[in-house]
Design a protein that fits this description.
The protein is α+β, with helices and mostly antiparallel strands. It folds into 3 domains: 109 residues, Rossmann fold (3-Layer(aba) Sandwich); 66 residues, 2-Layer Sandwich (Dna Ligase, domain 1); 90 residues, D-amino Acid Aminotransferase, Chain A, domain 1 (2-Layer Sandwich). Helix content is 35%, strand content 24%. The protein has 9 helices and 13 strands. A 5-stranded antiparallel beta sheet has the order 11-10-9-12-13. A 4-stranded parallel beta sheet has the order 2-1-3-4, covered by helices on one side. It is globular and about 60 Å long. The two termini are 13 Å apart.
């Protein structure tokens, strides 16, 4: 069997994020090539790339896909037409791009941060949103987004003051509203990492004082405590149900009353925190080899 040609997907850095993703990407690329795999870093929207030369496309960090969502969808369609395998699978990636999936999971009875959908072209009804979410403070963010882009944390008075700006954004794209979760500031946000559906490692992300954004490029810090068993089990159940066939999955959530409440199921371009856990990069490699073996048997 010929050695499969693998594209490791990155993005053209426009200076929006720190280089922490590139550090993980470079380490992963070096590790995979040392193991004998033919891996080439590629920018996902580079028009010069001949995608037909690849047997497998690994979505690692197309971090700007949400800024160019229609271009991203077109790229996925092209890969489908070329019958290039993508990890994670394209149908799951497409589903995961739009945070409407949180409403879907909520309707299925999963423990999700309560979510109110704000359809494109609608207007934010501040009284209705606060009444439905039963919160003194709400988070409003785009349905297709990442990196806390256009994300607002608002009291009722601030929401009234910002309504004109939010309504202008609503004419361009759909948003969602959620209650502000104080546990993010007091306890932090858990991230559970899975490779091929098997738990690899866990981190706890905490925001810097006075902030609600736990991302490392906003000053958040990373910890590696042993996760409570019931939280890990809940994360595992979500991966089993909604990330079938995925090489990687990251379950982000908070603990409320001893239970995991889902904030995001990250199946496209999550930072994998592999440097925080000894052996994580080896586990990623082993999961990838397993996927390649399955592909060879088809």
């Amino acid at each position: 069997m010929n050695t499969p040609q693998i594209a490791l997907i990155t993005y053209k850095d426009a200076g929006k994020y720190t280089g922490v993703s590139e550090e993980e990407n470079a380490r992963l690329h070096g590790f995979l090539t040392q193991k004998g795999l033919q891996v080439t870093p590629e920018i996902w929207d580079d028009p010069a790339v001949d995608w037909s030369r690849y047997d497998l496309v690994l979505l690692k960090s197309p971090w700007d896909y949400f800024d160019k969502i229609e271009v991203f969808y077109a790229w996925l369609r092209k890969l489908e037409e070329l019958q290039v395998r993508v990890l994670n699978p394209i149908h799951i990636v497409r589903w995961n791009t739009d945070k409407r999936y949180l409403v879907e999971l909520q309707e299925k009875g999963e423990k999700v941060v309560p979510t109110v959908w704000l359809e494109r072209g609608s207007r934010l009804n501040v009284a209705a949103a606060f009444g439905q979410l039963q919160s003194e403070k709400i988070i409003v963010k785009p349905a297709v987004s990442g990196g806390a882009k256009n994300t607002f944390a608002l009291t009722r008075e601030e929401a009234e003051a910002q309504a004109t700006s939010i309504n202008a954004l609503l004419q361009e794209e759909s948003f969602l509203a959620q209650p502000f979760i104080p546990e993010i500031q007091t306890k932090g946000e858990w991230s559970f990492l899975f490779f091929n559906g098997t738990h690899s490692h866990t981190v706890l992300k905490t925001a810097k004082a006075g902030d609600f954004r736990v991302q490392h490029f906003f000053g958040g810090t990373i910890h590696t405590p042993e996760p409570p068993a019931q939280l890990l089990e809940a994360a595992h159940n979500l991966v089993d149900k909604y990330a079938q066939g995925c090489l990687y999955a990251r379950v982000d959530g908070v603990e409320q009353d001893g239970e995991l409440v889902l904030m995001e199921l990250e199946l496209i371009e999550p930072f994998l925190f592999m440097a925080t856990s000894e052996g994580a990069i080896e586990r990623y490699y082993e999961a990838l080899v397993e996927q390649l073996q399955q592909q060879a048997q088809v």
